Give the backbone structure.
Amino acid sequence: MEERSLRISGANTTFFSKISNTLTKIITPTKEGINSMIISIKRNNLLRAFEAFDKEDEDTEELEKKYEETYKLYLETLDKYVLNSIYRKANSGTATEFQRQALSQYYGIVQLKENEYIEYKYRKQKYLLELDNENIKIIDKEKLTNRYRKFYISKMDELYKRILKNYSVKLADNMDAYDSSKEFIYTKVFITLEDYIRNILSLKLEDKENKQYKDILESYQKFERFIVGKLDTKDNIEKNMALLEISRILFTHSLPLVVAEQCYLKLLKDARCLVQDTKIATKREKAYKMLINLIEDYKIRLLSTKVYWDDLKEREQFKQFLDKYKEIEKQKDIDFEEYIKQKEILFVKEDLKKLDLQKQDYTTLKKYYKRKLVDYGVMRELKNSATTNLCVFKGNKVNNHF
């Protein structure tokens, strides 16, 4: 009897399993259809509320409240879709590559919830909007695409600014200088800026009639050079230079000047190390030219706009540097080659002063700088009895051995 019972039990299990599998195949598409329909309804409600709120000539307080409510319901629906539909497909092994990646990204964002709630909150919204934006591309209805794009750009602008503002707050603990203990946050700042420029700014620039972004076209074209192909360390530094240029126009409040200054100091550290560590002469020379350009960006694009200085002596020193720079600028149209040479000499001298204040050992870079100054005739190379080279500025002795 026991044996017979086991056989019947086994048969029933197989039978119900087959029924269950069949029902899943029948029901799942239906659920997906229902999910899609609900998302469509919530999306349309959101777009109507956004379009009403976007009009400046109406009562915005009430419209803003309605917009926020419809946005919240829309996100909840998208979140449910991710959990129910994509998770089920991944579990059954029927998920597409895109859906598997989407689920993996979702879990990565959820892990932020416990320790980085603010970042989690904004990144989850960003993720859900990106997911639905991909769905709309698949639907491929021109009217819907155009309506959604305006909302999408507006909301993503807001989310990126809040994410960057969150990073700025974390970096604000030490405003004086680049802090190596926060290396991961600097990296996240550059990744977020690149993500924005690739996915949102590129959409804005498609609008040829919008002249609002005319000022960043040059910086954007610099960035475009690094979109394709494998990047080395030098390329990555130059790409991040372009990102910071754009950020000074688009994210002046989300990434205040004091934070942008720390980001520049991080790049200067990376560029100095690259010049110092590169053994191949031609590559080292290219890295050196990049470092000179970076010093100019930092000094002229950023420090020249700095209003508040904690150290008044440092401010006076920078004023003296800026006066010299402006004097050299006058030669630009008279003798361009001499202008480039004098500008390079100015930057090298200035950076030599800064190297003595750094914790890192830049002995090799100092020697490289001084060799440049000797080649330009700014320093003389004296040999003493111990065959040690001593560098001397014309008319001014330097205590550092070369």
